[in-house]
Known about the structure:
The protein is α+β, with helices and mostly antiparallel strands. The protein contains five helices and 13 strands. ATP binds at residue 47.
Amino acid sequence: MHYSRSANSLVRTNLSPWSVELTLGSGTYGVVECVRNVNTRQRLARKTIKLTSKQEEENELPATAVREIAVLKSIHHPNIILLSHVAFEPVYGGGCNHLCLYLEYLPTDLKRYLDALGPGERINPRLVKSYSYQLLSAIECLHRHRILHRDLKPPNILIDYEGHLKLADFGLARQCHMPERTLTHEVVTLWYRPPEVLLNAPTYG
Length: 205
């Protein structure tokens, strides 16, 4: 599924004012970087999404990008990552514009935090309770709006050094409708799939 670009919701620029400070991650979707505005010094996370040559030619966007933008524009919650703006920018030169999502920046994620723990080291129980509360609060907000994240895992749970937690990466999110539709089981990294998805339930959510 593909969607056309909307001039009303996306910003096109010929020159990016953002300077890359750090690469946070990369994958088949593209790359996520920590960037700073050279004029205002504001720091954000920039998710640059690769477009296929066909998408470029036909002026279309990937469905995952449209879903993520739609969810983040419709949901505002202290434990859900904030979308600052969306733009098409020639971030890598060559005259080719790339789809860029500018998001609230948090320095690390739950996976990196857990991987950094030493042998036998445990998370403070108060922090476990706080993280659990914040994560469940974000999920409750999504479910109240009938939205399934469908990719809950430690790398998509961002944290800072003050104990704040925010849920991110909504490329696989879907809104539930009545009557329920059959959704694909090819969601979520295998190790984090819930039982109903592993058992091929016709509906879930």
